[in-house]
Amino acid sequence: YYIRVYSWSSVQPAQKTFNICVVKNSDCLPPTTITTSNITSASADVTVDGSLTADYILEYGLQSNFTTPGVDGTPGANGTVIAFTGNLQQISGLTALTGYRYFIRRDCGTGVYSSNSTVRTFTTLGPPPANDVCANAQLIACGNTYTGTNVNATSDNVPALVGSGGPTITNGVW
Fold first, then answer.
1. Within 13 A of 150's CA, how many CA atoms are on the CB side?
2. Are 42 and 93 a contacting pair, CB within 8 Å?
3. Would you say the C-alpha torsion 7, 8, 13, 15 has a positive or negative sign?
4. What are the distances in angstroms from CA 6 to CA 12, 14, 61, 95, 142?
5. How far is CA 125 from the centre of its chain?
6. What is the average per-residue pLDDT within 132-137?
7. What pLDDT does 160 receive?
8. If DSSP codes are grouped into helix, strand and coil, which group holds residue 136?
């Protein structure tokens, strides 16, 4: 590194005292590729592009009142902090049909943290329909007509029966 300082005076040479502080750029950077997936009425998964052994701080809160994240391991106003290791963290205990925002920062150890990532947002789904889980199925009588929906239904994880003349099975209700 080179530092060059000039002083100019039209009357006489000027002598000045000054300080120089040189700081190395941090190797502790926040993740840049962050995705939200598997959003339900009560949870969401957050994936980061970092190492499987890296430590992170995920800070989240309601879109309505969480705007400024904290620093280090401390949450900002109305923020909730989750410390995790690896690429995937689930945020659970969320409220249906609610907007959330979150930030990620890296915990590089020995009290060194990255800055916060850019803000990310998501909205939880509505509650699942009645009769969503087989264990709590409602009794129905043959010959009656029932109207319902499978919007927000839990995935049945049953392979589709396409092309065999049968129906296509997706998210179902019981």
1. 10
2. yes
3. negative
4. 14, 10, 51, 61, 94
5. 15
6. 69
7. 55
8. helix
Q: What is the pTM of this model?
A: 0.68
3-class secondary-structure state, position 59:
strand
Residue in the structure block whose two tokens are 């969320």: 94
How many alpha carbons lie under 13 Å from residue 113 in its C-beta half-sphere? Answer: 15
In angstroms, the CA 44 to CA 82 distance is 13
- The more confident residue out of 65 and 32 is 65
From 9-13, 68-72, 107-111, 163-167, the region with the lowest mean pLDDT: 163-167
Lookup: tokens for 170 = 């997706």
Higher pLDDT, 61 or 139: 61
Encoding tokens for residue 174? 């019981």
Report the alpha-carbon distance of residue 59 to residue 106 in Å, rounded: 11
Q: What would the two tokens of residue 62 be? A: 């309601």
Whether residue 100 contacts residue 124, with contact meaning beta carbons closer than 8 Å, is answered with yes
151, two tokens: 């919007």
Cα(49)–Cα(18) distance, integer angstroms = 43
DSSP 87: S
Beta strand pairing call for 55-62 and 80-85: antiparallel
